[in-house]
Design a protein that fits this description.
three-stranded antiparallel β-sheet, 15 helices, 41% helix
């Protein structure tokens, strides 16, 4: 296995979140929820005599992505007809771009165990989506709601050499698309689909091996599993002296294997030719530059900024910047100046994320605000409530949106830091448990934590942990001195 190198190129199809379709005025709807064929017209169902009209918003979205990937934007690009017959393609061809795409020669930087690595982008081009087949027992139905929805195809060079790099590239690209607000990134609904071109070659060989293409991978897990399986399959064939067939494969999720769908077609099989009903697409430099100026801070740049500005660990900064809404929330909390950034980062990636996962919702669906979180963390840091009470308050703010101070007052969660009061509670607990005290003094050290918990329970969780620990230790020291004097 170590005598071979994996070579992978990824084709990514991203469905744009425009209001209307690529070449007609039909609304873009959720094809998994909307009534079948409820958002269609003569154009997107391929009726004879209809003419396409290009969606300018889709072009703008495509330029945004191309600029974020540092691509060269072509001032003039051309649409083409990609001819093939399939039931969900009503015209018998797909309007796409081939010889003159919108953008080329970009790159996406990914993080690897060996540091940063640039994955080259071969091309970025616009096209339209197909319809959706719904298979039933013995027959199939076609829903054309998705037909004509704007798609962006992003094709990488074969620069990826492991499943870990595949995942890093795919997640990084999805994050950029969501930061740019051009694609929902919802893979369960087909907003992003992956196609992996996989080959294996002897280590050090300059020649690429025979590749196979795995189609329609709609989750990171399926993509990683499919690529891993295909690499092992091809490596095994080469070790046995057998040839690898160039073909298109599907991924059988239930069986965990790739399955042959058809022998791999070449570009000439599609009989590409310029779309006669659409003129060349011209975008001027002024428009391109205005779009460039509107780009947000992108995930990797934002991650590096958080590391430098707030001394965050790279892994934690990566989590905070993986989604734009989380990064915006963190930045807004930091800007309040109420709490240290490192503490805010811990609360967000720890307890707040735990609540989000528990409820299976996004941050924007909760009722907590950056100001409320910063205020709560500030209260905990000042010692007005302990960490346990802080978590209780966080949950209450998360679900109700109420002010942390009011929650603390309502439930009397303010921390008890009165030394005399805590000393009194310690004395009561020790006097009530003489056998455990004797066992601790005899060397059973774990009982200290048991006593700590008993006193904290007596204080209803409100005792200052540091003062409690000090008073408990002092009380045991007195017991030991009294025993020595006796």
């Amino acid at each position: 296995m170590s005598d071979f190198q994996t070579v992978i190129g990824l084709e990514v199809h991203a469905e744009f979140s425009t209001q209307s379709k690529m070449f007609c005025g039909c609304p873009v709807v959720d094809s998994t929820e909307a009534a079948p064929n409820s958002a269609v017209c003569e154009i997107c169902t391929g009726m004879p005599g209809t003419l396409p009209v290009l969606n300018a918003r889709a072009v703008e979205f495509a330029i945004r992505v191309a600029l974020a990937l540092d691509c060269e934007i072509a001032n003039t690009s051309v649409f083409a007809r990609k001819n093939y017959f399939y039931p969900d393609l009503p015209k018998g061809f797909q309007i796409s771009q081939y010889s003159l795409p919108l953008a080329e020669h970009g790159h996406l930087t990914i993080e690897t165990p060996d540091g940063e690595k640039d994955i080259r982008i071969r091309r970025v081009h616009l096209e339209e989506d197909t319809g959706r087949l719904l298979h039933r027992d013995g027959f199939s139905l076609i829903d054309f709601n998705r037909s004509g929805v704007p798609l962006l195809e992003i094709v990488s060079e074969p620069d990826i050499h492991s499943v870990e790099e595949v995942r890093a590239y795919a997640t990084g690209l999805r994050s950029i698309l969501r930061y740019l607000d051009v694609c929902s990134g919802d893979m369960e609904k087909g907003a992003i689909r992956f196609e992996a071109n996989v080959s294996v070659r002897p280590l050090g060989s300059p020649q690429l091996g025979t590749r196979t293409e795995i189609k329609n991978l709609n989750s990171f897990r399926s993509m990683v599993r499919a690529v891993s399986h295909e690499v092992k399959r091809q490596t095994q064939l080469l070790c046995e002296g057998k040839e690898i067939s160039q073909e298109t494969l599907g991924w059988d999720v239930a069986r965990g294997v790739t399955v042959s769908q058809r022998s791999k077609e070449e570009a000439h099989d599609y009989r590409y030719f310029p779309e006669p009903d659409l003129p060349p697409l011209y975008v001027d430099d002024t428009w391109i530059e205005s779009i460039r100026e509107s780009l947000p801070e992108l995930p990797l740049a934002r991650q590096k900024r958080l590391i430098v500005e707030h001394d965050l660990p790279p892994y934690q900064a990566g989590i905070l910047t993986s989604e734009k809404e989380i990064a915006d929330f963190f930045d807004a909390a930091v800007e309040t100046g109420l709490a240290p950034p490192i503490k805010l980062a811990h609360w967000i990636t720890g307890d707040l994320f735990s609540l989000l996962n528990q409820e299976n919702i996004d941050l924007q669906q909760s009722k907590i605000t950056p100001v409320a979180l910063a205020e709560l963390v500030s209260i905990v840091e000042r010692g007005e409530i302990n960490l346990t009470s802080g978590k209780t308050v966080l949950a209450e703010v998360f679900f109700t949106g109420r002010d942390p101070s009011k929650i603390i007052a309502k439930f009397s969660l303010d921390q008890v830091s009165d030394v005399e009061e805590i000393a009194r509670l310690v004395s009561e607990v020790l006097n009530a448990n003489p056998e455990q005290v004797s066992a601790y003094l005899a060397g059973k050290q774990p009982l200290f934590q048991w006593f700590f918990g008993q006193v904290m329970a007596a204080a209803k969780g409100r005792a200052n942990p540091q003062i409690l620990q000090e008073q408990l230790a002092a009380a045991f020291q007195q017991y030991q001195q009294s025993s020595a004097e006796e």
